[in-house]
Write a structure and sequence with these properties.
Length: 478
């Protein structure tokens, strides 16, 4: 690509907590300009470039942020140098930050752009080719200018603030095309045509398309989600039919086909889910992968989804899902239902759960939901199986009932809906939902956080917001 060739707009993901801290620093009420630096992981996908904010460095007024030689104010050279070296060593992008006045629109001044022209080619040399750039914030807007080797540059398209609810920031208010569709008229009365447009532009990933995953596909398809990524290596069996939405005997194999040919005609679960999504929303883009989520090239496809649903219950899938959530800033939810049965056949408490997970919140590793011993078992070829039994006899399949799956999935899909459309209250419940069917009680589990966790914490060696330059716990395709 020739020098100065523009790159298509990029996106920024920033956690709600980091954004709140930054806004307090930039807008303390004095009406003045303030500075900071963000170091961010890089995610490159078919959707373009996305940066995931990892570290926030606030510049102290008068010490790190001082009167400028050419413009109003500037970051001091020593403050910049230590952060650009840190960015280089950690393979992170460097973003210098300041604020302007205004609310819903913002842009760089001519002095700002002149400063970028003077300084960023040298910073790229120091960063060894990692992108460097700048952000300028108003109270409800952000603009960005990102530089690459060869003097290529790109502007920020949009920023996502990810927390209990998702917020969108743009350089200027976008002109959204209203989706005036009779199909979605009743539900768009809740979140408006803008909310429906958000769902239409959302990419969700569903991992596991069995009893829970098939329900999620159905619900999200009917909500009008526009882009689906599905993965599950399994085919339909007769015993799946009571739980797979809209599956029938012909999906197992037509009765008249000789038994030695039936395996060839059994449908993959992802194909049934894709069929159901398209029935609900013919315009949806559906990528159905009859593959294992753990395969490196499959996992790579999920790193730039807007939301993930984990409906597979192996420890390996939990580990990888948890890693993508923290490493790429993709929020998600783990759903499941458990029917414990004792050796004598006695049924214990029957419950289902919906566990939301996002960067720095609800980490499955911190909360003891990823068993190292089970991970080790699953790594042994002889122990590779479709699921683990809840009883001592490994030949006995775990009980599974469609109604229990539906409770967990409805809660998870509803949580996704209110998250994406921004309708959640700021102080909405963040604990995990648990429904005990035998007792008829709902409860909430408050997730823990280990400040030294290598998955979700800010320690130097953690994977939090590290993006593409940090390995995922995948396996090569066999």
């Amino acid at each position: 690509m020739a020098p100065n060739t523009p790159v298509k707009p990029w996106r920024l993901t920033i956690s709600e907590e980091m954004h709140a801290q930054l806004m307090r620093h930039l807008f303390p009420g004095d009406g003045d300009e303030h500075g900071a630096i963000i170091l961010a992981g890089i995610c490159e996908s078919d959707r373009g470039l996305r940066l995931v904010a990892r570290e926030l460095h606030l510049a102290i007024d008068g010490e790190d942020y001082v009167p400028g030689k050419y413009g109003y104010r500037m970051l001091k050279a020593q403050f910049i140098q230590s952060r650009i070296i840190r960015a280089r060593d950690a393979n992170l992008a460097y973003l210098a930050i300041h604020n302007h006045g205004g609310s819903t629109s913002v842009g760089f001044s001519p002095d700002d752009f002149a400063s970028h022209e003077r300084g960023y080619p040298a910073l790229i040399d120091i960063s060894r080719g990692m992108p460097v750039g700048a952000l300028v914030f108003a109270t409800h807007a952000v603009a960005g200018d990102l530089w690459f080797a060869g003097k290529r540059r790109a502007e920020l398209g949009e920023a996502h603030i990810v927390g209990n609810r998702r917020q969108f920031l743009y350089p200027q208010p976008p002109a959204r095309a209203a989706l005036k569709s009779v199909t979605y008229d009743r539900q768009s009365r809740l979140f408006g045509d803008t909310g429906q447009a958000i769902l239409s532009g959302t990419r969700v990933g569903i991992i596991g398309l069995g009893g829970a995953g098939s329900i999620l596909a159905e619900l999200l398809g009917r909500l009008g989600v526009g882009d689906f990524l599905l993965t599950d290596p399994d085919k339909v069996e007769i015993s799946n039919l009571p739980r797979l939405v809209a599956a029938d005997f012909s999906d197992v194999a037509p009765w008249w086909i000789p038994s030695f040919l039936r395996e060839r005609f059994r449908r993959f679960k992802v194909d049934i889910a894709a069929r159901n999504i398209r029935r609900a929303n013919p315009r949806a883009k559906v990528t159905a992968l009859p593959r294992d989520f753990l395969d490196a090239d499959v996992a790579e496809r999920f790193k730039d989804c807007d939301y993930l649903f984990l409906a597979a219950d192996t420890m390996s899938a939990r580990l990888l899902f948890n890693a993508i959530v923290n490493q790429y800033g993709v929020p998600g939810v783990q759903v499941g239902a458990k029917v414990p049965v004792g050796p004598d056949g006695t049924v214990g408490d029957v419950f289902c759960v919906s566990r939301t997970v996002r960067s720095g919140h609800g980490c499955l590793w911190c909360n003891g939901l990823i068993s190292p011993s089970r991970l080790q078992d699953e790594a042994v070829p002889a122990s590779t199986k479709k699921g683990y039994a809840y009883v001592d006899d490994p030949g006995v399949a775990a009980p599974s009932v469609v109604t229990m799956n539906a409770v967990a999935c409805a809660h998870a899909a509803d949580d996704f809906l209110f998250h994406m459309t921004g309708l959640k209250y700021e102080n909405a419940e963040t604990a995990w939902f648990r429904w005990n069917a035998r007792r008829g009680t709902a409860s909430y589990d408050v997730p823990r956080m280990d400040l030294q966790c290598l998955e979700c914490s800010m320690v130097d060696d953690s994977r939090l917001a590290r993006g593409d330059n940090f390995p995922l716990p995948t396996r090569p395709r066999r």
